[in-house]
Amino acid sequence: MSFKVPRGTQDILPGQSEKWQQIEGVIRELCRVYRYQEIRTPMFESTELFQRGVGDTTDIVQKEMYTFEDRGGRSLTLRPEGTAAVVRSYVEHKMFGQPDQPVKLSYMGPMFRYERQQAGRYRQFVQFGVEAIGSADPAIDAEVMALAMDIYSTMGLKDLKLVINSLGDKETRNAHREALIQHFEPSIGEFCSDCQKRLEKNPLRILDCKVDRDHPLMATAPALTDYLTDFSAEYFTKVKMYLDTLGIPYEVDPNLVRGLDYYNHTAFEIMSTASGFGAITTLCGGGRYNGLVEDIGGPDMPGIGFALSIERLLLALEAEGISLEVSNGLDIFVVAMGDEAKVKAVELLSSFRAKGISAEMDYIDRKMKAQMKAADRNGAKFVIVLGETEIAEAAVNVKEMESGNQEKVAFHNLVNYLLEHK
Ligand code: ATP
Ligand code: MG
Questions:
Q1: Cis upstream peptide for 102 (omega within 30°)
Q2: Nearest partner of 162 among 217, 63, 240, judged by Cα
């Protein structure tokens, strides 16, 4: 019998996990300066939350959820995205009552979607996202986009494109919906079965279809931007003005439609334009969701957020040839020969570690030469060899591996010596 990771999942092994930690560090620091506080919600929620929060007509709810019944007969779903749960928590904990709005939250953790596996598409993947709930100021839309862009540029990425669109308000959407139905209805038979269902339920989503994207009617479909109400158009103008103020370049794509049902006004994606990136170029997606808080049982509070996956960020880094430094340096390897020396080694390791000095020793009774090799493989900066003589003298030669220099140091001075020289 041999076991493998489930399809669409991966092990992140040592050597790779350090890169994840580095990215996580950059993200945490940016959240600190932009002031998006971390929220941690459960890995599963009631299925209904996602049906409502993400929307019944979305791919996520229609075909990607890991839904199961628990022993109490409740329908639960492994979270496929973060917004619904964050908004649930905002409502449940009455954060709308806090004096400082918007409440600015961030999250990072695994999401689960039953998807066809391909590069950049996993069944378990890690999303980082933010939500700013409680303000309808276009300046916050720009702030959220700035944070997302900042993450990528801090990681060193250059081949980036921010694409924005306005989905307008309810009035805009209704007028556009009618126009879309008129446009597609006569030829809907030429479209996939999903699109045929979308025509009545949510024709906007036809524009986001991955199967029919090259159908000629796609290019000539009525654009949302032509249906913007005065208010929506003005809102969009302000968002663009703030992006200009921040010096963030963007493109307007009137056909940008986000996958989730709940978006209105601002929608945006960040793409990688790196040549080696492959078919899926979207790194990050976000938008405004006024109305969602109310749908989830709270007061009428507007919100905006984005989500990005660490997996696609790593792909973008690879495509641009940016390699993250993996520093896994070892300060000292203690080679011990004989039982007494081993006890001393255990004691010394403990005193080193107590002062933040990383220290390692042999635990499989290797010969001296093999222990030296292990020290080398581990990239030890210093090595000491403990034998009978060293124990008797209570002192040891500290060898700096790179230079080969040695210095004799008394046991009781070792910690200080290493702190000074490491
Ligand atoms: P797509 O059109 O690529 O399916 P989506 O609309 O489903 O994207 P969102 O739900 O908006 O994506 O998720 C936001 C971000 O999360 C995406 O831009 C992408 O970076 C990442 N993402 C989404 N699904 C996956 C996945 N299965 N594996 C890895 N990353 C993902
Ligand atoms: Mg998707």
A1: yes
A2: 240
- Domain, as residue range, for 135: 17-169+229-319
Q: Is the entire prediction scored with pTM above 0.85? A: yes
How far is CA 49 from its chain centroid? 22
Q: Ligand 1 pocket test: which of 63, 256, 282 has the largest number of ligand atoms within 8 Å of its C-beta?
A: 282
| pLDDT digit string (tens) for the chain, length 422 residues | 899 999 999 999 999 999 999 999 999 999 999 999 999 999 999 999 999 999 888 889 999 999 999 999 999 999 999 999 999 999 999 999 999 999 999 999 999 999 998 889 999 999 999 999 999 999 999 999 999 999 999 999 999 999 999 999 888 888 999 999 999 999 999 999 999 988 988 888 898 888 998 999 999 999 888 899 999 999 999 999 999 999 999 999 988 877 566 688 999 999 999 987 877 789 999 999 999 999 999 999 999 999 999 999 999 999 999 999 887 789 999 999 999 999 999 999 999 999 999 999 999 999 999 999 999 999 999 999 999 999 999 999 999 999 999 999 999 999 999 999 98
Please choose from 118, 312, 315, 317 the residue to mutate so as to test ligand 1's pocket, defined by most ligand atoms within 8 A of CB. 312
Beta-strand runs (E) in 368-416: 380-386, 395-400, 406-410
Kindly tell me the sign of the dihedral angle through the C-alpha atoms of 390, 394, 395, 396.
positive
Q: Are 309 and 351 part of one and the same domain?
A: no
CATH code at 139? 3.30.930.10
Domain count within the chain: 2
Q: Is residue 380 part of a domain?
A: yes
Centroid of ligand 1 to alpha carbon of 373 (angstroms): 45
Tell me the C-alpha distance between 422 and 405, whole Å: 14
Distance CA 12, CA 230 (A): 49
Residue whose CA lies nearest to ligand 1 atom number 24? 121
Would you tell me how many other CB atoms lie within 10 Å of the CB of residue 240? 18
Ligand 1 neighbour 127 (Cβ under 6 A)? yes
Helix (H, G, I), strand (E, B) or coil at 9: coil
* Final residue belonging to a domain, choices 262, 292, 319: 319
Distance 309 CA to ligand 1 centre (A): 7
Last residue of a domain, one of 319, 354, 380: 319
Ligand 1 closest atom vs CA 115: 27
Residues 87 and 236 in one domain: yes
**Which ligand has the shortest distance to the CA of 282?**
1
Distance in Å, CA 342 to ligand 2 centroid: 55
Task: Give 201 Cα–ligand 1 centroid separation in angstroms.
Answer: 23
